[in-house]
From TrEMBL:
SUPFAM superfamilies in alphabetical order: Winged helix' DNA-binding domain
Composition skew (Basic and acidic residues), residue ranges: 105-123
Annotated segments matching region Disordered: 99-123
Full protein name: MarR family transcriptional regulator
């Protein structure tokens, strides 16, 4: 995963230590928690080898941190389990540092007023 030049120059070496592939995979899936991806898509997004990503996904599944259906993978919706995984916290901190914290109000301002057509109306 690349970083910008400013981060490279202004961040100490310990903070720049590479995340492990499982940490990168979990961080990516957590950042995209409402979507599921194929292993090759994840590999492409985080700049890792597809084989390493597939191995990481299998290990994360064994720890119940990700879910798998057909060829798609998604982060677990068990917040307690995620919070208990130390790599998740480190990945989240690094993503927030690089990309900034999420602004809930900004999301709400840009959210559609109507539900997506794929969402069934439960009324």
């Amino acid at each position: 995963m690349s970083i910008d030049r400013d981060t490279f120059e202004n961040t100490d070496e310990d903070e720049l230590a590479d995340l492990s592939v499982p940490d990168q995979v979990l961080g990516f899936l957590a950042a995209n928690e409402h979507r599921a991806f194929k292993a090759r898509e994840i590999a492409s997004q985080i700049g890792a080898d597809e084989g390493a990503v597939s191995t990481a996904l299998s290990r994360l599944k064994d720890r119940n941190l990700v879910e798998h259906k057909a060829t798609y993978w998604a982060v677990t919706d068990d917040a307690e389990r995620l919070d208990g995984y130390s790599g998740y916290e480190r990945a989240t901190d690094l993503f927030n540092e690089q990309l900034g914290d999420e602004d809930t109000e900004s999301w709400r301002e840009h959210a559609p007023s109507e539900p997506h057509p794929s969402v069934e109306n439960e009324q």
